[in-house]
Amino acid sequence: MNEQKNAPQGEVDPAAATNVKETRDEEAEDHKPRDSKGWDGKLRLDKVTLGDEPRDPTVEVQSEPEESDDEGPPPEQLPADEDLLDDTPEDEEEIELVHCKVSDMDSLRLERFKQMKRLCLRQNRIEAISIPKDAATTLTEVDLYDNLIAHIKGLDAFTELTSLDLSFNKIKHIKRLNHLTKLKDLYFVQNKISTIENLEGLTNLRQIELGANRVREVQGLETLVGLEELWLGKNKITEIKGLDTLTNLKILSIQSNRLRSITGLEKLVNLEELHISHNLLTDLSGLENNTNLQVIDISANPIEHLTGLKGLAHLTEFWASNCKLSDFSEIEKELRDKEELETVYFEGNPLQRSQPALYRNKVRLALPQVVQIDATFVKQV
Fold first, then answer.
1. Checking DSSP bridges between strand 376-377 and strand 372-373, what pairing results, if any?
2. Contacts of 343 (CB under 8 A, 6+ apart)
3. In this model, does residue 106 exceed pLDDT 50?
């Protein structure tokens, strides 16, 4: 192991008082366009945007004011976009125009590209989806991240799609998608969606991203039996439920919500990663059946005592920065028997703040098997 491990991913999950880059694949993805806050949509925002202190579970969470439905004046209209693709060979399979101020998809004359498989029009000014129907037999990926789309229309013919990214738009309702039965990856990060709905039929879906929306209830996912990754960070969810049929789920990311307890995970026996930081949890009960868990992130929750981890023999990473843990003996009791454990984060807890000079050595004594404590390697592999 030659590099430090990065923090677990989270749609908008802030890190626990570290300056380490927190996105697993960030180095490989740095070339990808991002929004003004640094979020790519398919990746997770670096964990620097929310406060690191655990929230007080006795204090009622106040809703952030939602944006007005008045979207202001129409966007600036630019000259026609016909010439943007003039130098592109007509047998090109991947069409990409990023940050080109495109406002009208029809003006691009995409019907020229008979072999188009991937269409990427990120960070433009597109308000309506308009793709030539002739492309329906070849097109498998559409990426319209960071545009001005308010309604999901114009995709009726595109049944070969396997990936659709509509992140950072103005979508309020999920509609007219359940005929896209070959979809594997669906991204709705940072829209205005309040209800998870109309996903019936997407049984091949592997992951869905709904981070940074207005979702209050986990619902409408029952038919997505092939789902492996579910990203729900930075919403307004108060309870985990409606997941019993998702027995193939491997990653659940539900950080920065309003959860007070861990519930509804009993049937998720294949779950490998649970990202549940920045909530209102006071304990870790509810994980008894999730014996395949490898990564847990509970950072920035008001948890005072470490319990509920006894059966998690395959744990490799445990993130608990900025909680309220004060007892080294609890760490030893719950984690010392985890032979596969390599990385732990306890920075920002009372046990670190009260004895900063001795803290790391005490963790090493309690957990001699670990390789990394916070951002520091303590053992060569």
1. antiparallel
2. 5, 316, 317, 318, 319, 370, 371, 372, 373
3. yes
